[in-house]
Sequence to fold (508 residues):
Amino acid sequence: MLTVSLLIEILRTRPRQIFWLVALSQTFLWLVVPSIFYSAPPGDVAEVLAVGREMAFDASFGPPLAYWLAEIAMRVTGNHIVGVYLLSQLCILVAYWALFQFGRATIGDRHAMLAVLLMTGISVFTVSSPDFGPEILMMPLWALALLFLWRASGEGKEIYWLALALVIGLMLLTSYLAIVLVAAIVVFLAITPKGRASVMTPGAGAAAFILAFMLLASIAVLKQYGSLLFPDIAQLRKLAGVERSLVSGLRLAALIVVAHAGAIILIVVASNLPRRKNAEAAVVARAPVDRHARVMIYFFTVVPLAAVFLLALLAGRSNLSMLAPLLLLTGLAIVLAGGDAILLYHQRVLGVAWFALLLLPPALAAAGVMFLPTIFAADLKTAQPADTIARYLTENFERRTGRKLEFVAGDARLASLIGLASQRRPHVIFEPGKGLPQIVKPEDASQSGAVVVWRATDNVGTPPPEVRAMFPNIVPEVPRVFERTLHGRAPLVRIGWGTVRPRGEQPQ
Fold:
């Protein structure tokens, strides 16, 4: 007699309830872990907030929407980083919801839920989710764009053309990766019969008219952004450039495979690849899928990813984070390829494997912050004592000058941490030539003074040449050593620092 596990039975009978359980559980876990265990933000969050602090519109650092939203989230939560973590998880939640709605409309509730379960095994939607930036914000916008495209072209609801134009406008304010999606949408509508018929409507015409202006403005500033969309083709004429591109391509392909490791495990367990005899299988069936939906899912799974992969190969850069929005349909494509009736073997083992993929990554992230620096002397970004560093340097500057700390400069990571953790939220001045925007200039600090920081490499705190070039009159101080909350074998954080005196003040 065939027995069906409770998880599979609930999935077949109440897929929507299972979706909200899965999505909200993951949101809660990845909100709690960084909020409690991270003493410093992961990835480039500090730099994102340093740029967002200025609330500027400058083509030198690309579309600003993600930076603005990060700063707004900080201010709404009383200058606490938890606001940014919450914003990041809300982006993931909306992306899951949009994907689930798209899946329900194309391959049915049950199979859409299977696709969402597979997404918990893709690291860019879990482990990388607290690292808020343009790529994280692009996820819900990308998913909503595909959902609205289906509503408009697949279901013939004209109002969704305007919704699609609005979402693409927000995408253009977030990342120039939106241009890849716009190009893919145009090609898809041109090559599919249903797509060609759907654009011959007033709603599609109005949306195209609106998008034309947005695209022209984006393309006009694209070269200033220095985007991956404009790779340096001349470098490929050199042997070193070709080698770098090949290595970059291989590395990016390996990163994509590793990012899908959890999903691969679920597929292996569920499909009975080990060929265990007499293995029982639960059947999760669906109605036949519309041809337009089938083409759309496969097209937007493969084409944008292939285009960005080719551009990354030509540019010689392999950044997995920029690919995160393009992996949204991977689960749907796998489930669609599984057929109208998917057999799920080893139900209990499958349930355990899925719960492990849901719970273990946040648990390991928390344990890593606590034990990796202690046992293996790992210098994790998330274990740096940001509050202690910011408090010491802020109080020291204000005690010496009698003024509030308004500017901090030097090493991008350290300066951004101080700009984030200090109660004063000082402006951050980035070093020239580091690929970071120069919204605040070194001369802006001449009137109010500044704290300049760098990684100390000697006992006298000699500033690096680039720091000395920024501030020729800097007065270096004795390097300061900061202990971590859990020290263990991890090296102490040694910071070289100095002050730029406010104009008219004599050194004490």
User: Anything to note?
Assistant: Residues 384-500 form one domain. The chain has a mean pLDDT of 85. The chain is about 60% helix and 5% strand. Strands lie at 281-285, 341-345, 407-410, 427-430, 450-455, 475-476, 480-482, 493-500.
